[in-house]
Amino acid sequence: MDSDRGARTALIVGAGVAGLAAAIALAREGWRVEIAEIGPPDATSGWGLCLTGPSLRALDALGLADACLAEGYGMSTITHVDVHGEPASMIRLPHLIGARRPAMAGIARPALHRILYAEAERWDVAVRHGVTAAAVDQDGELVRVRLSDGTVRTVALLVGADGIRSSTRGLLRLASSRAFHGQMVWRALVPRPRWATGIHQFAGKTGTAGLVPVSDKQAYVFLTENGVGRDVLPDSELAPRLRHLLEPFPGRAAEILPLISAPAAVVRRPVLTDFVDGAWNRGGAVVIGDAAHAPAPQMASGAALAIEDGLVLARELARHDSVDVDAGLQAFVRRRRQRCRTLVETSVTIVALERARRHHETYPLVDSCHRLMAEPV
Q1: What would the CATH number be for the domain defined by 2-74+101-177+273-374?
Q2: How far apart are the C-alpha atoms of 334 and 322, rounded to whole Å?
Q3: Does the structure show a pLDDT above 60 at 330?
């Protein structure tokens, strides 16, 4: 790639949802794209995620919505259940890709990764594993990137899509505000109960739990544990501890308990948020996805923002004829900043309300934020 001296060439750091979506969108616009991913092939974190309406809309623009719906589980409702086990509200989400297709979908992370990876390969995106960016310098209008294996790339565009702990963000000297909110989020892969045809979220006296179908046969349980530090538990303790945390939840939440068995099917992570308040770009380099704006998982919209980022980035660069990359990046940030800030700030508010056990106040917030996200990007 270095021999091209940057002409419509892009290096993306990170092969997660944001990086792969950006790679596909840029390649469709004629860019020659390479991804540097520090992890091994097929390394995905967590068990499942929710592709909300904005996620499906952006995936549809990339020609991938139907593939994701075929692999996942289509849904249109979120049912909130109160501390007594009674339904408190039902949110019916707008159908953004047509009335005949679901409003959202649960999907296993490995399945989404396979779909994105295969599409990137179809567009001749080169993915190098085991490497990441080690140094970044502006070289006139181009960006010179030294990779961790010592090789050098000189490209027109560098995209940092390496997550909330982004090293690319640090290399670009972009300040962020990462915060831990006193919650740990649990997820466990379980057989899907027949009644789970949409998302169910259960309010508890000490936390929040829920169930998201990801296929006809599987779902994932999520639970937020309040008032804890960022400790690490042995794998052998994960399943019993999650069952213990779920025991106080009444109603159908109790039916989930016997489904949690294998320790390997349970993960526990800190609830972190981040937002880059200042510039997201330096010259021909930019950060996207969780590297720029990481919401708490309560809004289930991190994937939506990440996929939208890739699509809007490619569109803004195309609108500026890919000649003035810096102008294209500034236009991208202007389009994305407020939308992403609103989602991150709303997710933080929801975390605080959950910790205060004011669950009923979160329901209208979730509804209004989903409707805001349904607006065109």
Answers
A1: 3.50.50.60
A2: 17
A3: yes
